[in-house]
Amino acid sequence: MAEAVVTVLLENLSSLFQKELGSIIGVDEELKKLSSTFTAIRAVLADAEMKQFTDLAIKDWLRKVEDAALLLDDILDEFSTHDLQNQNQQQKGGWFNKIHASCHSSFGLKNAMFRRRMANKMKRMRETLQNIAEERKMFHLCERIATTDKKAELMEWRQTSSVITQPEIYGREEDKERVVQALIQTCDTERAAVHTIVGLGGLGKTTLAQLVFNDDRITMHFDLKIWVCVSEDFSLKRMIKAILDSASVSVSGNLDIDPLQKKLQQALQGKRYLLVLDDIWSEDQEKWDRLKNSLVACGSKVGSSILVTTRLTKVASIMGTLPPHDLSFLSDED
Questions:
Q1: Would you give the distance in Å from CA 19 to the centre of its chain?
Q2: Residue 281: other Cβ atoms inside 10 A
Q3: In Å, how far are 196, 284, 287, 309 from 306, measured between CA atoms?
Q4: From 112, 142, 169, 316, which residue has the greatest number of CB atoms within 10 Å?
């Protein structure tokens, strides 16, 4: 589990660096040092997780690694939320709001207090992680490439489904309504219109997609609903297999692309479908074009739609045929 948590954390850090958020807040170097230390720790996690069953000290060390990764992930969420708050203030418009926003700029008192508070958290985080990194040397752990089983465990840990697992969900009613209406009102002449939900990790993109997917109006509007958790593997063959599996179409053996595409055509032809592609990271335009062309060639009903969730604005710009739905932080009232 520690390896999976650290891997996702490093992906979140990478996303932060792409947004250059660290340099804006003034902690860019601290984040890079933490990322480097976590990368070094991750190199021995596969060995540590194998040995933890016979060494309680290593098991305790893995727990410390996981706790540290979760703590840093919480800190990253604070950075992201602070950045979104500043963006929202600046987008309100009007001379009064502009003056108000300028008072809360990076030179303002509020941001100065935030930077000081976060700098203290980062210092404590760095000290904790340095101790954990030093402690690993006591165990003489080897650097190992993750086994197939470990990679499968990580993929399973990151998998999502269309089932809503949270008992209560607050603050996303307006977002849900906007996305539902956009899907239902998709232009009748548009085949495979692509809607995107974009937002930072932890804001609830998957939860919002689940709410939309299970809405009664969506169920009534579409003949077929399909949910695929994508994550990192965006190969055409894997994607078609996952779509067919979600559509309850059996795929026997290791079929090549041609028979898979024929099965896809049979599954979607003459139907208005909704396809959710959750958690996309790939920025490969060619891979997306191949998948979309395969979907368009299926002869589905007009009004079919694809709903994509991603952290990356570049993915949304590559895939989306409509303006993205930018998911913001929840207010204190929500």
A1: 15
A2: 17
A3: 8, 17, 16, 10
A4: 316
Q: Which has the closest alpha carbon to 208: 259, 266, 164?
A: 164
**Encoded tokens for 262:** 């024929």
Per-residue tokens: 47: 């060995």
- Which two tokens mark 186? 């998709």
Question: Whose CA is closest to 3, among 53, 35, 51, 47?
Answer: 47
Domain coordinates of the chain in residue numbers?
A: 2-158, 173-326
Q: Which strand (E) or helix (H) includes residue 273? A: strand 273-280
Domain 173-326: which CATH class?
Answer: alpha beta
Residues 6+ apart with CB under 8 A from 137: none
Do 231 and 281 meet the contact criterion of CB atoms below 8 Å apart? yes
pLDDT by residue for the chain (334 residues), tens only, comes to 566 666 666 766 666 655 555 555 556 677 778 888 888 888 888 788 878 877 888 889 988 988 888 888 877 777 767 666 666 665 555 544 544 554 444 445 667 777 778 778 888 888 888 898 888 888 888 876 554 455 555 455 467 888 887 656 666 888 999 999 999 987 656 678 899 999 877 778 999 999 999 999 999 999 999 999 987 678 899 999 999 999 999 887 788 889 999 999 999 999 999 999 998 888 888 999 999 999 988 888 888 999 999 988 888 899 988 889 988 765 555 4
CA distance 178 to 183: 9
DSSP string computed for 108-170: SHHHHHHHHHHHHHHHHHHHHHHHHHHHHGGGTPPP-PPPHHHHHHHHHHH---SS---S---
Tokens 């197939």 sit on residue: 148
